[in-house]
Amino acid sequence: MTADRAFFDRVIARKGPDADQVGFPDFYPERRIVLSRSEILIGKRSVSQGVRPDIDLGIAPADVGVSRAHAMLHLDENGLTVTDLGSTNGTSVNGSDELIPATVAVPLRSGDRIHLGGWTTIVLSTEPGGVEPA
Q1: pTM
Q2: How many beta carbons lie within 10 A of that of residue 133, not counting itself?
Q3: Cα gap 88→127, rounded to integer Å
C-alpha cells in the first residue's frame, strides 16, 4: 500500500464526496500485507461499531476518504476479486476514474492496483509478501 499522488489529484479534480476534507500526507510508509485468508476486509477500525478490518487504513496518517468497511478482497480457487461494500467514495481499479459498482465482485490479477479513499493505492502481487507498494 502506498499514498498515490496521481490518484489523489484525480479525486480532487472530480470533486469526490470528501474531496474538501482529504489532504495528501507528507509521509506514508509503504506497507506490505500477506493475504492469508479467503475474505480480507479493507477499511478503518472502529471499536464502537465492531469493525476490525484485515487491512486497516485508519493507521496514521489515515486516509479520511476510506470508509470503515470499504471493500472486501475474496480469494478462492478461481482467483482474487475486490468488491466495494457501498463506500462513500467508492473503489476503482488500475487508474480508472470509473468506480466499480457496489456489491459487484471484480476479478483481479497480479499487478492490478486498487484505488480507494482519497489517496490510497493497493498493488496486488503474487510474489511472497502479498500486497506490494505502487
Answers
A1: 0.88
A2: 16
A3: 31
Residue type, 56: D
Among candidate residues 128, 122, 120, 133, the one with its CA nearest the CA of residue 25: 120
118 vs 35: CA distance, rounded Å:
23
User: pLDDT tens, 41-74?
Assistant: 999 999 888 899 999 999 889 999 999 999 999 9
* CA dist., res. 93 & res. 39, Å (int): 19
Residues 6 or more apart whose CB falls under 8 angstroms from that of 9 comprise none
Closest by alpha carbon to 79, among 44, 126, 21?
A: 126
Model pLDDT for residues 79-115, shown as the tens digit of each residue:
999 999 999 999 999 999 999 999 999 999 999 999 9
